[in-house]
Amino acid sequence: MGCLIALAAVAIVVIVVLLLWYLLAGRLRPPGPTPPGPKRPTSQPASCPDVQLLSIPGTWESRSDDDPRNPTANPLSLLLNVTNPVRAQFPQSRLDIYTVPYVAQFSNPVALPPDGQQSYNNSRSEGTQRAQDELAQMNKTCPLTSYVIVGFSQGAVIAGDLAAQIGANRGPVPADLVLGTMLIADGRRDIGPGQATEVGAAPPGVGAEVALKGLNVPGITMTGPRAGFGAVADRTFTICAPGDLICDAPRQALTPVNIIPSVLSLVRAAGNPVHAMYSGFEVDDKGTTTTQWTTLWAEGIISDAPHPAHS
Predict the structure, then answer these.
(1) Is 244 a catalytic residue?
(2) Where is there biased composition of kind Polar residues (predicted)?
(3) Which of 38, 66, 183, 200 has the fewest other C-beta atoms within 10 Å?
(4) Where are the domains of the chain?
(5) The whole model's pTM is what?
């Protein structure tokens, strides 16, 4: 009798196992390939530009209510020396230039009395959001438009962060639509694999946010180096003048341990003579300045950009 009960128990177990295998077999199979996303259309609206140049000005060179297609917040803005001559080379059907309007300030957190400016964190966040929103909206409306991204100083930090996100497939536009990115005086500049290609001689220092990684005082968070530019690294470039503490800070000279001197050095760096002279800083032995090189670079890749069909 005992043997019969044991055999019956074994039979029940076998039946249960077979039933579970049958019911769950489909669920236990390895997942198949992810279905491809929606295909891009073969044409886009006639109002769409072939290329958009996204320009992100530096500290004190923009304003939240500035006109993105006719910026007047600061007539001396460095990147106007790039966008104005580039604009003159192409019709509006070929090129749209959008200058990101944002507060572009950097409050000194130890100033007494307070200087009344927006903090770096708030300014950088607004600039980033405005840039992301514009790229996302343009891509939604004009899915075949390609992009050139240019940033200076605080704008270079924003532009570089956007490029890194796009290169990691986490950005507002697909990586293959980004023709190139130029970062002038990038506060997160670093040297190594996957980083931006240096135009001209590469200074030995790093961006202030890299040198000050870990510094976190009210309104100023230093985020350290980027992981790299991923899929867009081969077309991301940077220019840094030797001695510009925004992008050429000695790795150990500014430390979170010395918070007050570090913050004061960082605030002063935004207005130092080297940082303010990129329109005359030469990047090669032919005397080509930063803005001239960037203009020629942008004009070249815009000329070579695809000509999507329009409907």
Answers:
(1) yes
(2) 116-130
(3) 38
(4) 48-305
(5) 0.84
